[in-house]
Write a structure and sequence with these properties.
four-stranded antiparallel beta sheet, Rossmann fold, ABC transporter transmembrane region fold, alpha/beta, 22 helices, about 625 residues, elongated
Length: about 625
């Protein structure tokens, strides 16, 4: 946690210096106040005022007693003014330190969230990450601030006043140390009980945020299935559990504070009793009572802050462990030392005996090998769960295979920088995501600042220009969250335009036309012929109309390459490809007679001809 002080070490040192000066000024003010009272008592100012003069005249007079009193009062006034100035500087510096620390912690957390791999984001929910980035971050910030400044203030105040008490009376100073062992024992005992309770509160809070996040993201599903009451009940149940855990925590800390205060009060009374006895015996002066009261008030007030720091510490320890999981999350892939930019080439992609599994013990892809020449269009087909999207994700190096390697233009993708690789490999995901920005900004996301003409050209190729022009502000129209104001097909066309603008060497379309009607799909394919020239294109699709124009078809079954060839070659072979072609074109396995092999439209035409031939001649 204290590593976050490195970027603000200058402010930290300055805040500590102001705190030390402020503490010295406060202790000195208390000492001079006690000296003033003792001086007044010694000269018996109230018993023998100057003859024929009032109190003010006597104080301003030339007598040595009056001059000494004036000097002490003047010194006290200067110290008090200095204390006020130091208080202002201290508070301003503390706030700057706190805010700067928040900035750097947030920057570190957000930076890690950007660089963490898919595996990390798959394991932790969005709501939990939001809670860690906000609540846990503030808990850690508050503790670091308290641990440095309040702890230093406690040490300086206790040390300064203890030295002052030791100077006046060693016995009183030793009595002031009596509560420390008791406090230490009780705090350690309390800490063992507090951390599990705090962790349970934070986990319940995570679930609250996750429920809200999921409900907002899936509001259309909730309304479509009329499950509003079910979602409300689920949220209420979790809120009740959260409330119970918070009450348990509050009771625990409510029991902690009175015990700490009781120890402090007992110590305070004992010290005043001892001071009274010493004054009666003449070993302390009357002004020392004020000094003792101020010193013990300051010491006990600071020591009672141990409960505040302990509260913050218990929260921070749990929060720090949760933040640690974020800050120490290992990226799914790492750049090798000396990684270089991806060299120029036509975009040839080679898989060499690749085996990969999200859980290494359960491979998704097994011994996959094939070569795609540069500029080719390769279609990846296969049943659900065969590993099609996983295979494509290895090209962009979202993950690294456990065995084998993936090469682009003869270079292992693990030997090149991630930025250069992903600038040359554009991905259109199956689930389209658009940002709450303008249409233009979404299309130009991979190349911000490009000319509007290039954006419009990409939109035309993706068949998005017409509907974008129909929007209220055209390309400047700001989209709703996740592009909710657009249809699924419109969002997918913008995603395709976003990939086209990047002008990549390798383009991956992961079922990118699934939400688009066949007519629009045909228009997009026709428009993309130009942008597919001299570019390697991976097409993951289920529609044969999309697959049959590919230069190569790779069929995956059970994580292995079952067939490779062109559409016509695979159609002539017995296997999964011919099976799915027959299902889509003929609605059956294709092993029946000619009538069963007819397409749906041909069967309808045949039915109409038969009906017309058998109709009575006088039928209308």
């Amino acid at each position: 946690m204290f590593g976050f002080l490195r970027p603000v070490k200058g402010l930290t040192v300055l805040a500590c210096v102001y705190l030390a000066l402020w503490t010295g000024a406060e202790v000195t003010v208390v000492r001079y106040t006690a000296e003033t009272i003792n001086r007044i008592k010694e000269i018996h100012l109230l018993d023998r005022p100057a003859a024929g003069a009032g109190l003010l005249a006597w104080i301003l007079g030339p007598t040595p007693d009056a001059a000494g009193l004036r000097q002490i009062v003047l010194t006290l006034a200067v110290l008090t003014c200095g204390l006020g100035v130091l208080t202002y500087l201290r508070e301003v510096t503390n706030v700057k330190l706190s805010m700067n620390m928040v900035f750097y912690i947030r920057e570190a957390v957000y930076d890690k969230l950007q660089h963490a791999g898919f595996r990390f984001h798959d394991a932790i929910s969005t709501g939990e990450l939001i809670n860690r980035s906000l609540t846990d971050l503030q808990n850690v910030r508050a503790f670091i601030n308290s641990a440095v400044l309040i702890t230093l203030e406690m040490l300086l105040i206790v040390g300064g006043y203890f030295a002052l008490l030791l100077w006046r009376s060693p016995l009183v100073a030793l009595l002031a140390l009596i509560p420390l062992p008791l406090w230490t024992w009780y705090i350690l005992r309390f800490s063992r009980q507090a951390q599990p309770a705090l962790k349970s509160v934070m986990e319940a809070g995570d679930r609250n945020v996750s429920i809200i996040t999921e409900n907002i993201a899936g509001v259309h599903v909730v309304k479509a299935f009329a499950t509003e009451s079910q979602e409300i009940r689920k949220y209420h149940e979790n809120c009740d559990e959260f409330f119970k855990r918070v009450i348990r925590r509050i009771r625990m800390f409510a029991n902690f504070a009175p015990v700490m205060r009781g120890i402090a009060t007992a110590s305070h009374l004992t010290l005043f009793l001892a001071a009274g006895i010493l004054i009666i015996k003449g070993r302390l002066q009357v002004g020392d009572i004020l000094l003792l009261g101020a010193a013990m008030g300051a010491i006990l007030a600071r020591l009672q802050q141990v409960s505040v720091i302990n509260d913050q510490y218990q929260n921070a320890v749990v929060s720090a462990r949760r933040l640690y999981e974020v800050l120490m999350a290992r990226p799914a892939v790492r750049e090798r030392p000396g990684a270089r930019p991806l060299p120029d080439g036509p975009g040839a992609v080679t898989f060499e005996r690749v085996t990969f599994g999200y859980d290494p013990a359960k491979p998704v892809l097994r011994d996959v090998s094939f070569h795609v020449p540069g500029g080719s269009v390769v279609a990846i087909v296969g049943p659900t769960g065969a590993g099609k999207s996983t295979l494509a994700s290895l090209v962009s190096r979202f993950y690294d295979p456990q065995e084998g390697r993936v090469l682009i233009d003869g270079v292992d993708v693990r030997d090149v920088t991630l930025e250069s690789l992903r600038r040359q490999v554009a991905y259109v995901f199956q689930e389209t995501f658009l940002f709450s920005e303008s249409v233009e900004a979404n299309i130009a996301y991979g190349r911000p600042g490009i000319a509007g003409g290039q954006i419009e050209a990409a939109a035309r190729l993706a068949q998005a220009h017409e509907f974008v022009e129909a929007l209220p502000d055209g390309y400047a129209t700001r989209l709703g969250e996740r592009g909710a104001s657009l249809s699924g097909g419109q969002r997918q066309r913008l995603a395709i335009a976003r990939a086209i603008v990047l002008n990549p060497r390798v383009l991956i379309l992961d079922d990118a036309t699934a939400a688009i009607d066949p007519e629009t799909e045909h228009e997009i394919r026709r428009g993309m012929r130009l942008c597919m020239l001299d570019r390697t294109v991976f097409v993951i699709a289920h529609r044969i109309s999309t697959v049959k124009s590919a230069d190569m078809v790779v069929v995956l079954e059970g994580g292995r390459v079952a067939q490779i060839g062109t559409h016509d070659e695979l159609l002539a072979q017995d296997g999964h490809y011919r099976h799915i072609v027959n299902l889509q074109l003929y609605g059956a396995d294709g092993d029946g007679d000619g009538e069963e092999r007819l397409s749906h439209m041909d069967r309808m035409r045949q039915f109409c001809r038969n009906a017309a031939a058998t109709a009575p001649e006088d039928a209308p």
